[in-house]
Amino acid sequence: QLRLVESGGGLVQPGGSLRLSCAASGFTLADFIIGWFRQAPGKEREGVACISHSGGSMNYADSVKGRFTVSRDSVKNTVYLQMDSLKPEDTAVYYCAPRCWRVEGYNSWGQGTQVTVSS
Question: Confidence band (pLDDT; 50, 70, 90) for 6?
Answer without folding.
Answer: very high
